[in-house]
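Colleagues,

For the teaching module next term, I've prepared a clean inverse folding example: a structure given as tokens, and then the sequence designed for it. I'd like students to try predicting residues themselves before seeing the answer, so please don't circulate the second half yet.
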């Protein structure tokens, strides 16, 4: 037997590793020669997996969830978020005190990592259900098709007829004490409300200040027992109509009543009437609750199959943390689960 230097192939053959190496080499060659496939689960570039109407915390959260599953997503948003007047956003873990517009900017920046997510700064005029798909018509007349739709366009607050109200809204005059109450803690505060709701708001705001006045902004609807309860907790009641707020740089200083009398206050809790920012849900045939919100079932699907809704449009529980959670819920267990079931047949 001739003994000499063994080749690499001979050494591998003796060791028993040759079959494994050859398999690996053949796979490498095949991978190099194989054309790159479209790396999204939906290979039809003419249709999106989901079009999201609204690019606030809810819409961005939903897009992030879907982007991580490589779904083709289009976010449509024309700006002007509801919380734009606020200087800071609170009760949102790791981002407490961040400016709301900065928060959205960070969210959009992080979505750039996911190449299947697109953003379009435009509003949606109409959505038509065509079989199992949807045709989305934008404000400029352009159209796109999508397998699912997520409505996250939010609500609009109806300001009361009080002079200078907008100047203080979202700053020292607020609808959520968890978001704004800490900044005016231990200051003289006011609640605008009446009846049982007014008493409940006063009880809530007591956690932030002992100096509290309930303004019914007109004739009181308080019962005798409710008045006694308020008196017990040192909450004064003012029934005069409010005509004006006074202060500077968004900081409330004085409430002016129709009598001309003034009340020094540094903050105010008020619950405003609201309405949906868009009539898209109604036009689609989605059920609307008596309180004006879009009705949703499990995983935030509306009464129209394939249409989902999340965030402020579905609930009076309105906070960024809630909106983000709802967006993720609608996207994952909702939209993505439905798409997976449709594709896995």
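(Answer key — instructors only)
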């Amino acid at each position: 037997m001739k003994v000499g230097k063994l080749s690499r192939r001979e050494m591998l053959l003796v060791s028993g590793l040759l079959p494994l190496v050859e398999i690996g080499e053949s796979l490498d060659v095949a991978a190099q020669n194989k054309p790159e496939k479209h790396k999204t689960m939906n290979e039809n570039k003419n249709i999106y997996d989901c079009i999201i109407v609204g690019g606030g915390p809810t819409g961005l959260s939903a897009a992030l969830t879907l982007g991580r599953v490589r779904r083709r997503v289009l976010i449509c948003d024309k700006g002007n978020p509801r919380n734009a007047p606020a200087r800071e956003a609170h009760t949102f873990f790791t981002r407490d005190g961040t400016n709301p517009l900065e928060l959205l900017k960070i969210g959009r920046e992080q979505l750039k990592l996911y190449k299947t997510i697109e953003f379009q700064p435009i509003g949606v005029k109409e959505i038509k259900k065509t079989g199992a798909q949807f045709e989305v018509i934008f404000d400029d007349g352009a159209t796109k098709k999508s397998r699912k739709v997520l409505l996250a366009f939010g609500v609009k607050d109806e300001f009361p007829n009080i002079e200078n109200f907008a100047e203080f809204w979202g700053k020292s005059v607020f609808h959520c004490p968890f978001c704004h109450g800490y900044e005016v803690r231990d200051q003289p505060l006011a609640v605008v409300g009446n009846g049982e709701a007014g008493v409940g708001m006063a009880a809530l705001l007591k956690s932030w200040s002992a100096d509290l006045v309930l303004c019914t902004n007109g004739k009181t609807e308080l019962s005798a027992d409710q008045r006694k309860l308020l008196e017990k907790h040192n909450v004064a009641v003012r029934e005069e109509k409010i005509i004006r707020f006074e202060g500077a740089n968004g900081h409330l200083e004085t409430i002016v009543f129709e009598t001309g009398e003034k009340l020094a206050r540094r903050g105010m809790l008020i619950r405003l009437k609201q309405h949906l920012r868009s009539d898209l849900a109604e036009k689609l045939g989605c059920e609307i609750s008596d309180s004006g919100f879009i009705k949703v079932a499990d995983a935030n699907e509306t009464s129209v199959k394939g249409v989902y809704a999340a965030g402020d449009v579905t609930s009076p529980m309105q906070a960024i943390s809630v909106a983000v959670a709802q967006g993720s819920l609608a996207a994952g267990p909702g939209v993505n689960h439905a798409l997976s079931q449709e594709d896995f047949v």
